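W.,

You were right to be curious about this one. When I first looked at the sequence I had no strong expectations either way, so I just let the prediction run and decided to look at it fresh. Below is the sequence, 161 residues in total, followed by the output.
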Amino acid sequence: MLLDHIIMSFAFVPVLIVISLIFGTGEPMNISVMERLSFLALFFFYFNKDYFGARSLAKRSLGLVVISNKTNEKAIELQCFLRNITIPLWPLEVLVTLFSRSRRMGDLIANTRVEAYDKTSMASLVDDIKSYKLNPVSMVTIGTGIVYSVFLWLLLGTLSG
């Protein structure tokens, strides 16, 4: 989880900084539409980091994969999304992990686990994207991801102002 966070931060923080510099208002309490959309995209991609092949970039480099406990196969997109909805509650995730070394709180919700798998390069993500076929579960996952991201975006906006 920590390596995923570091990779996502290095991927998105520079983009968010550039967008803030170009489109920002310069006032902390007055966030531009472009900045808000950028954070919305960040939430969406973070929650779906395991979307392709049940493996994030960190899992690919560490040789791990998200597995469904029900099928013992790679987890489907919706399970990967559900597994990551608890990311905003990371302090609670850390506590759960202390008592359940093998599974995060998100794994308990999505009925998944992480297992060893072949280590692959980051280029394998490109191959997974190229060979990907959109299906009904994918569309539900994308829709749910957008709704959940908007919910968090609105919640954070309400809490900050």
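Here's what jumped out at me. The mean pLDDT is 85. And, maybe more interesting for your project: Residues 95 and 145 are 25 Å apart (CA to CA).

Coffee later to discuss?

I.
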